[in-house]
Amino acid sequence: MKHTITLIPGDGIGPEVTEAAVRVVEAAGVECEWERMEAGAEVVAKYGTPVPDEVIHSILKNRVALKGPITTPVGVGFPSANVTLRKRLNLYANVRPARTIPGVPSRYDHVDLVIIRENSEDLYSGLEHIVVPGVVESLKIITEAASLRIGRYAFEYAKSHGRRKVTAVHKANIMKLADGLFLECLRRISREFPEIEYEEMIVDATCMNMVMRPERFDVMVMENLYGDILSDLASGLIGGLGFAGSANIGEGGIALFEAVHGSAPDIAGRHIANPIALILSAVMMLRHLGEQAAANRIENAVMKVMAEGKVRTRDMGGDATTDQITDAIIAAL
Ligand code: NAD
């Protein structure tokens, strides 16, 4: 079956790594029609927004997208394209697995955890205002509906992926109402899944435990901001941002796949970016599309190239280019 997929190359290293992922998917024999869409910092001058309506229409039609990173200005300028995409497509669950890849230099050997990040609310509501000059209020929104929805997604994910434990991460000792509501919803959902162990952990203690004993974690579910921070921490446990893929899942099965990393302006255009994070995001996309065999082949090829350790990009201490590592993965398919 031929899949029509919206492809957003994005900014910075985005076009380099998306091209690598497209080559690998095609080399694995998956029939795809890529609907290329422009979004990101570079299109703002042309369309007045980083996410033109055509991009949204394309994803709504195809129900699946593969996306490169998009640059977001700090402090000023247009709203985040990523937040806009997540909001307009109602992509409420962000799934970020972090698993040790043999051969990739990292501090640990047995990390295998999945962060499920609530993607639609919290401090990302974008509701900020100046109360009086020198005082800013930024609103953290937590709702029962979104907390129950992400809780159910996390437990169902754990169940369908053969996982044994869900850890809810919070700061309900301080934010008694907001994080208290989030926890209360998680407890309610956990009672429907007695076969899955449930635990709660305060976010600061979670950071310490992830750094000291990452193997104790399985599925972790949390609000938006904690998920943003802890998933970068998790990628640091497995060799860095070059290896962390992710899925953004919406209601009705709509899904957008992207790497956890950003547009890396410091190395953009030099063809030295590590494409593996986006290739592993494409593996998640193929599983979502029911292309299990191709997904397994690509994942095994990445593992083989990493285990051999001959071809490595600069972030892994090597000097291979994006194209060279992509060629090695294709040769290993
Ligand atoms: P970043 O992830 O772009 O880069 C952090 C560091 O990691 C840099 O040194 C970079 O060179 C390195 N790095 C990242 N990806 C790499 C790869 N594939 N291979 C090798 N090295 C890699 O984070 P940043 O610098 O904080 O953000 C840059 C821009 O990206 C910002 O505008 C930010 O808003 C945006 N961003 C976008 C997304 C997204 O589109 N989903 C996610 C995060 C950040």
Automatic annotation (TrEMBL):
The protein's matches in Gene3D superfamilies, at most eight in alphabetical order, are given as:
Isopropylmalate Dehydrogenase (3.40.718.10)
Q: Which UniProt keywords apply?
A: Magnesium, Metal-binding, NAD, Oxidoreductase, Transit peptide
SUPFAM superfamilies linked to this entry:
Isocitrate/Isopropylmalate dehydrogenase-like
Please report a single Pfam family linked to this protein: Iso_dh
Q: What EC number(s) would the UniProt record show?
A: 1.1.1.41
The answer to whether the entry has keyword NADP is no
Question: Is Nucleotide-binding one of the keywords?
Answer: no
Q: Which domain of life is it from?
A: Bacteria
State the Gene Ontology BP annotations: isocitrate metabolic process; tricarboxylic acid cycle
- Per UniProt, the enzyme's principal EC class comes to oxidoreductase
For activity, the cofactor(s) needed are:
Mn(2+); Mg(2+)
Identify the residues that the record assigns to the Isopropylmalate dehydrogenase-like domain, covering every copy: 4-329
Annotated GO molecular function terms are: isocitrate dehydrogenase (NAD+) activity; magnesium ion binding; NAD binding
For this chain, the family text in UniProt reads:
Belongs to the isocitrate and isopropylmalate dehydrogenases family.
The protein depicted here goes by the name Isocitrate dehydrogenase, NAD-dependent,mitochondrial type
Tell me the organism: Chthonomonas calidirosea (strain DSM 23976 / ICMP 18418 / T49)
